[in-house]
Fold this protein.
Amino acid sequence: MKTPGPFLFFTLPILVAVSLMSASSLSFAPPIRAQSAVSPATEKAPTAGAPEKIIIDSDIGDDVDDAFAIGLALNSPEVKIVGITTAWGDTKLRARMVDRLLAETGNTQIPVAEGIVTKSTTPFSQARWAQAGPPAKAHPAAVDFLLEQIRQNPETITLVAIGPLTNIGAAIDRDPATFKKVGRVVLMGGSIRKGYDDLGYAPDRGPQPEYNIYSDVAAAQKLFTSGVPIFMMPLDSTQLKLDEAKRALLFKESTPLTDALTLLYHQWGQQTPTLFDAMAVAYVLDPTLCPVTPFHVVVDQDGNTRADNSNAPNAQACLASDSDQFFRFLLPRLMRGGAPPAAH
């Protein structure tokens, strides 16, 4: 969830009725491939034919983009989801929400782990959907789960971090040597040159603290000094708007996944989602969607991610993406038919 918190004031648009349109009104061509700024070896592409093992660490339930990101991973055979861990705020209810999403889409074999509970002032907008799912059950602790999976799969796990980094910071504190054996971290977070609502139609206001980083600055600092490979999808490249036409096309498909996303969108209660988190998953699937550039990134005490090349790079950051290319990749994936809902 990537809301700007105290750093910006937004007037939330009133949810309006979506007028459904025929699928023929939008057509999707194969994505145009961009040249990445780093070599395939640097990007640690998985072996051809072998699904990449990923763990998704998510604050699902506040903003709605986490659900779209997880849905993209669920519908992508290029990855094997080793587990989903919940981060920030009421992590128990977030785990219950993940349980329901997995049940609705026929993916109950995927493990779910509960992260460290924290205080959060961000409304849990999709709480009722979570509470109406399968009965609450016990889950393992996220930090234990993360470290155990890294031990079992050294150098091969991609950790997709799309929430505040509390679980990750705690894993580094507990066992830095094991955490350093993670294959890489693909992060939605930070701001290099552009801040919230810098969409290219007016002069940019420059970088600013981003939610996932400033929510737990200490954890972010630990990650960026951990020495693990970091691929960073900051505000510069992730402000991707799911507009009315795209929502209509998606929601009318009525697969188990798109039905869940439709309900979650309406519980979220705003008009146009920004799919920040989905880019992190999309990058794992196809790095050409968000070419990266090496930087040395320092997280300051206010949550700014200051990037330069005065020291050796510790992260690769994507500074720009093509919104049309992204949605031509994303929407057909989300609209793929899924397994029928599992019995609750």
